[in-house]
Amino acid sequence: MSNLPSSDMETFRKTLWESKHIIAVAGAGLSAASGIGTFRGAGGLWRKYDAMSLATPEAFNNNPSRVWQFYHYRREKALNAPTNNAHIALAKFSLGSIRQNLAPESTFTLITQNVDGLSQWALDQVKASEPSESRRAQPEILEMHGRLFDVVCTRCNHREPNFSSPICEALRGTENLIEYGQEEPDIPLQDLPKCSKCGSLARPGVVWFGERPLYLTPIDILVDQADLCIVIGTSSTVYPAAGYAARVHNHGGKVAAFNLERSVGDENADFFFLGPCEITLPKALSLAS
User: From the candidates 145, 158, 249, 251, which is the catalytic residue?
Assistant: First the structure.
């Protein structure tokens, strides 16, 4: 391989056709066109905090009111966000009936660091338009950093999805205060979201810094088997996901990156497509609408 990765889509499509075990590793850039800001870019009041400092068990223990307001703000943003063409292209590629024409007899798994649920919603949309897929096994999306719309009990660990808007009455409207940088209310503990089973305080169902990501064992197996890794919208700085492309490259697989700008992770890329992934990815996969 030359020092500079290729940007030739026809060569990439030939590699895609020949690949048998394909994974995609997605980051925040996948949802950028849907209006979901990057984690470090959450606006308004949160600019006066280090957003990453709110995503820890310690932050939640110290100030559950503030952390819940941050995640309520993110939930409301995600609930109103549309899926974009990159989500739809990945969803279509997930379906065996469509992928068969692009990478015959191949497997595919999307490994996403995003918690916004948009990849699953896109898959649901696509499956609804492909009736034959309802009889097939569910395509895999491994949300390794959890789900924004899951809630987990801090006492009994019961986990369940919750798409309520707002998730509790005390949080109603606080997203607007946050948006305009106004003073956050101090919400009493008893008014924050509760576990539906035992009534204890619930927390957002996401993986916080210092916690173990989900699905690491099956992901390790997929990475070790992969002969093509498609990296989408990530600067490859958060581990373990940041190391997956290098592992595929090191055992002889190919790597294709779709990003707005070059990053340190590109050193392992055989292909690099610069630009918004909602444009470049559907085109490269021959799934542009």
Answer: 145
